[in-house]
User: Fold this.
Amino acid sequence: MSAAQYARLVPKKYRSRTLPKIDRPWRPRIVAWAGPAAFYPNRFYEIDKWYKARIDKPQKVQKMHIIDPAEHSRSLDELLANKGVEEINIGFKVMKVSEAREKSVDEKKNLERISRHMELLINVDETKNPNLGVYKHFKIFEHLFGEATFFHTVQQLDVSFGEDVVFSGNVIEAANTSAPPSVVIESLGNAFNTLMMVNLDGNPYEKKGEMIHWLVTNIPDGQPVHKGAEVMKYLQPLPFYGTGYHRVALILFRHDEPISLTPNLNDEKLEDRAHEIAKIYKENEKVLTPSGIKFFQTSYDDSVKQTLHSLGLKSPLYSYEYNEALKPDQREFPERPQPFNLYLDMYRDPKEIEEEVVEKRLETAQLEQVQVSKWRDPNYVENKKTLPAWQHEKIYSREGRHKAYIRNPIDS
Amino acid sequence: MPPRFVWRFINRNPRNNELVGRQKFPTGYQFEKDRAHRSFIYKVALVESKAHQEGFLVHYRDGVVLSASTREAEISQQLYSNTDACAALNIARVLAMRCLQSGIHFARPSASEEEIAKSKHQKHFFEALRSEGLTLQEPEPVEHSYENDHRFTWQRYPLKANRQEKLDEL
Assistant:
C-alpha cells in the first residue's frame, strides 16, 4: 500500500495528515515500445564486438606499487646495521701459521679417555687471541689513526707493570703504573722498533690530540728498551678525578732505518705531550709501520694527584654532567590528573630547593654531628591520621632530595 | 703560567659509562614477545654447529666483540673432538680469559635456564665461565637521582592508566 492510499484510509492520524504524500517511484507498468529491455542499465552503451574498425584510446595502466618480498624479509638488525666504509690495513700482513701436526694413535686414545671424563683442560696460554674486535669495540684504532683503519699485531709485545700484565683493555690501578713498565719486544730480524705509550682520553687542554706518556725510538731489534733513544721520558698516565676510565695504549712501530720523528717532540711541560697521533703517523708514514699494540684502562687514585703536584700543577676535579631529565612542559590544566605536589615540584627552581634542603639540614644540625633519628617519623600513627598523605610523605620519605635532609655529601 | 685545564673535559672512551655503571640496559622493543632478551650490555653464547663450537661475547650495540672457537688451530689441536662437551668447556675457559683480559667482568648468559639444564654442552660451558671468574650477571646501573646530580631535584612518578583510558583493552 502506498503512502497516499494509507492517508486516504486513515485520515484521523496526525502523521498521515501532515507528512507530504509521496509515492514510491514506480517503474512504468505499461511496457513501452522498446520492451522491458529499455530499462536495462547498459542497453545503449554495450560495446558491439562485431564492428571491425574501432580505434581504441591508449589504455593507461598506472604503475603498480610492487612489494618485493626479498626487500622486506631482512630482519630489523640487518636493516639497522650501518655498513661502514671499507677498512684499511695500515700494518703488516699476517704470516701463515704452520700446519697442525697429526696426533699419534696413543695420543688420541689418551685424549679421548681424559675428555670423556671431562678432565681435558687445554693450555690456555698457548692460544693466541686473534680478536681485533676488542680494539674496534674500544675504538682504539679510530681514535689513534683515524676512522676505518686497523692493523694486525705481528710482533709480540709483552708489557707489564710489576705483576700487572697489559693485555687488551684490562683495568690497572694508576698507582701501579708510577714506574715505567718492563717491555719485551719480539725479535724479528734486522730493523728498529719505536715504542709509544699514549693516553687516548687524557688531554685536558684545548689543543686537540692525545697525551704521549712515553716515547722511545730506534730500539735495535732484539735489544731491551733502554738501548733506544728516549725522546719523551716516562710519565704515569693521569686519569683526572671524576673522568672515569682512560684508555692507555702501547704501540710498537717498526722501521728499517733509525729515524727522528719530524715534529720536534719534547716533554718539558705537560702540555707539550699533547699531540695528534694520527698527524704524527701521517708525517712519518713512509718509514713507520705499526706492528704491535696493547692497551689497558686506568682511573683516578691518589698517585695521580701526587704526580700532578710534583709537576707543579693542581689536580682538577671533574664531575659527570648528566643530560637534563626529560619532563613535559608545565600546564595550568594538565591533560590528565597529576599528583599535584610532585607535579609542582617538577617545575620548581632547583636552586630554591637546594636552599630549602640546606635550611632544613641546618635546623637539625648540632655542634657535634647531625643526629639521625632511629625512626623515620616518631609520630607516625598520629601524623598518618591528621596530616594529608602528601604532607606526611615529606616527613618520612628518604628518597631523592629527602635523603639529603639526613645525609648530604657536600663535604666529599 | 701553564695553560688552563679545560672546563669541560670529555672522555672519549666508549666503554667508560658501562665500566662506571652509568649505562642503562636497553629496554627492547615495545611490541616484542620477549622484551627482556634485548636487555643486556654483554651476553655470552655458545653456538654449536655440525663440526665446530664457538663461544661469543656479544655487546648490545657493537655485536660480537670476542670469540673463541674450535676453528682456531691452537685450540682444536689440543682437543680430542671439536664437538664434545669437553670442547665446550675449554672454549669457555679461553673465552673467559679473553673477556677478563679485555676488562669485561660481567656478562649475561644468552641461553635460558631451561636450555642450559637440557644441554650438557651448555651446562659445562657456563659452569666453566663462572669458575674462570666471569660473573654471569650484570650489576644494576646507577640511577640518575638527586644523589649524583643536584639539579635533579624532583621525583619521577608513574602515571597509571585509569579505567576510562583502558576501555578499549577491556
The longest strand of chain B covers residues 42-48. The longest helix of chain B spans residues 85-101.
